[in-house]
Amino acid sequence: xxxxxxxxxxxxxxxxxxxxxxxxxxxxxxxxxxxxxxxxxxxxxxxxxxxxxxxxxxxxxxxxxxxxxxxxxxxxxxxxxxxxxxxxxxxxxxxxxxxxxxxxxxxxxxxxxxxxxxxxxxxxxxxxxxxxxxxxxxxxxxxxxxxxxxxxxxxxxxxxxxxxxxxxxxxxxxxxxxxxxxxxxxxxxxxxxxxxxxxxxxxxxxxxxxxxxxxxxxxxxxxxxxxxxxxxxxxxxxxxxxxxxxxxxxxxxxxxxxxxxxxxxxxxxxxx
Length: 272
Hints:
The chain is α/β, with parallel strands linked by helices. It is built from five helices and 17 strands. The strands form two sheets. Strands 1, 2, 3, 4, 5, 6, 7, 9, 10, 14 and 17 form an eleven-stranded mixed β-sheet that branches. Strands 13-12-11-8-15-16 form a six-stranded antiparallel β-sheet, with no helix packed on it. Helix 2 (54-64) links the parallel strand 3 (47-52) and strand 4.
């Protein structure tokens, strides 16, 4: 089913390299061609296997989304929200995947464009979230929020999280946002410490266009994408966000259970 498999490891991690070597040998024994992330042909792979964690998978998703290559995540630590195959079960699950026994689901990304005076300053992708936040303590950001060109609100806050369903269990959750099931086509908007008690998290349809006008960021502000790439933003700049046109296909074990992962990561039902 998969003739060429690309392997991506966690940078500067000997454990990741060790597990990747085991996988590489397994694939070769199955007569599957193996390519590594530093090889040019990796973008022609039929499957990408990420040996690391959720952070490594986020990076891979942004890199390969336009190639429409499915991704399987091997987690080196505890069970991950995205990289959900443990190293204990790695070889068993990988053999099942090679035999066509797996679950596949689509995850949407965000596309973000930063503009100033009708000039595009940068374009970015995020699988989890795009987060506007201050860079100095006790200095709030003021911004206006529009959805589909309709004015929503003027806010003063520490920042704003624009999240996909995938990212709803990350920074947005710790800021009071809801858990959004990956099967729901929606975008979440979660204010960070807004200067009013009336602001609440907002969910909008996934195909809505979100526009944020920065009214006051004189004391410093940045926008971060998946917590991995950050860009300074300034007063009068405009942040335009919408759902990206292509999706990532994540592969999971055959008996993948989203709520089992939620229970495990968030300790639902644990006795303290």
